[in-house]
TrEMBL record:
Residues 3-61 form the Glutaredoxin domain. SUPFAM superfamilies: Thioredoxin-like. It comes from Nisaea acidiphila. Gene3D superfamilies: Glutaredoxin (3.40.30.10). This is Glutaredoxin-like protein NrdH. Belongs to the glutaredoxin family. GO terms for molecular function: electron transfer activity. Electron transport system for the ribonucleotide reductase system NrdEF. The lineage of its organism: Bacteria, Pseudomonadati, Pseudomonadota, Alphaproteobacteria, Rhodospirillales.
Amino acid sequence: MTIIVYSKPACVQCTATTRALGAKGLEYQVVDLTQDDEAFSRVEEMGYQQVPVVVAGESHWAGFRPDLIGQLA
């Protein structure tokens, strides 16, 4: 399963999310929305207005969600 974390610089919840993913031994890719206009549009089309946005296979959510990260492990 591919895990993508859409993020912005200096985002506390983004850092918490990537740390939690790493602590569970999960591999992930970080996409900086300030550097990738296509990714920014994709996240907006999904209906999200806050970061991080995590896309894990068919699942996706916004914000720091340790409960959902735990389900991925």
